[in-house]
Write a structure and sequence with these properties.
Belongs to the glypican family. The protein has about 375 residues and is mainly α. Helix content is about 70%, strand content about 0%. It has 14 helices and no strands.
Length: about 375
């Protein structure tokens, strides 16, 4: 009553054993594909973590640099500016990770929050009553009167260009993991499990437990079983090319590292621009929002303190070098995996599964 391992000679198998063999080959096929995938998946997961750590290191550096700008040059508003600065860098981090947000909304929200502080602490430092309504009016007015000139828009442009590739790379790596996980659990068809049993276990039914399949026979069976997985070859090659393009974009003229390191400088220029245009801004704000309460003897026109570049570059250089090295190492590894899905049958038929150095092997019907 055997369905798969039918043979002229006497057999030591039963139908129940054939069913057990089918369960075994399904399990083994999943495990062997998982073993093949392991190195590739390990590399991608490792680089997702490494890229993320490098991004976070650069973001922390840029955030600390920006905070120190307020503490050294704009002390009257440093404490209140801490929260908007933190929010800006949190938004940037979320954007890189693929959150439904934009660089433009993050930057403009920051400048909306910054304007009431610049106006009340630097342009008109005599203001004593900054009510919620007045603050909100200043926030809304910022969009119309553009107190920060072209600096806010320039910051959006620079960051958008450099962060886009990082965001896309982050999403592409997650997609790569998803693809690999899906191929591990691709269903084994009935025909495939029967073919695998015939190849791996039918010799056992005749007591030939040491005979292994012939190489050509193994390749035929595996290619048939993995036809659907091998179809990913063209898309996988395209995926690797896209990763290469994105890593090159990240290393091109609009580098993430340079853009992040320049945030403090853009903010400084924007604040200086607002201070220099203080009288015109005050006149416009008074018309739109009314006049707030002032101390006697208005202290207006606060000292404008141009800021020299912060010199703490060691952390930045290390994070920059680390990110560049990781990009290079990663893309070189991924390029070597271009044929991953095209050659999956060959790699499964490698090693202990088949008989390579012997003239005796199993061809599905007999020992040859």
């Amino acid at each position: 009553d055997l369905q798969i391992c039918q043979h002229r000679a006497p057999t030591c198998c039963t139908k129940k054993m054939e069913e057990s063999y089918q369960a075994a080959v399904r399990r083994e096929r999943t495990q062997s594909i998982q073993a093949l995938n392991f190195e590739l998946k390990y590399m991608i997961v490792g680089h997702i973590t490494a890229f993320q750590e490098a991004f976070e290191s650069l973001l922390r550096f840029a955030e600390n640099r920006t905070s120190s700008l307020f503490e050294t040059a704009y002390r009257p508003m440093a404490k209140e500016a801490a929260e908007p600065v933190k929010e800006l860098f949190t938004d940037i981090s979320l954007y890189i990770l693929g959150a439904e947000t934009t660089v433009e909304s993050a930057v403009l929200r920051f400048f909306d929050s910054l304007f009431p502080l610049v106006y009340s602490r630097l342009i008109n430092p005599g203001i004593t009553d900054l009510s919620e309504d007045y603050t909100e009016c200043l926030r809304l007015t910022r969009q119309d009167i553009n107190p920060f000139g072209h600096y806010s828009k320039n910051m959006v442009t620079e960051l958008s260009k450099s962060l886009w590739a990082s965001r896309m790379l982050s999403q592409a790596l997650s997609l790569g993991i998803e693809v690999i996980n899906t191929t591990e659990h691709a269903a084994v068809s009935r025909e495939c499990s029967r073919a695998l049993v015939r190849m791996q276990y039918c010799p056992h039914c005749q007591g030939l437990t040491l005979i292994r399949p012939c190489v050509g026979y193994c390749l035929n069976v595996m290619r048939g079983c993995l036809a659907s997985v091998a179809e990913l070859d063209a898309q996988w090659r395209e995926f690797i090319s896209t990763l290469e393009y994105l890593t090159n974009e990240m290393a091109a003229s609009h580098e993430l590292e340079v853009a992040l390191a320049g945030i403090w400088s853009s903010i400084n220029e924007a604040i200086l621009h607002a201070q220099l245009n203080g009288p015109q801004l005050s006149a416009t704000v008074d018309k739109v929002c009314g006049q707030p309460k002032q101390q006697e003897g208005n202290l207006s026109s606060a000292n404008i303190v141009p800021v020299k570049e912060v010199t703490e570059t060691q952390t930045f250089v290390m994070a920059h070098t680390s990110l560049n090295n990781k990009r290079r190492e990663f893309i070189n590894y991924m390029k070597r995996s271009r044929t991953f899905y095209a050659s999956i049958a060959e790699r499964l038929c490698d090693g202990d599964l088949v008989m390579r150095d012997s003239s005796t092997c199993w061809n599905g019907e007999d020992v040859v």
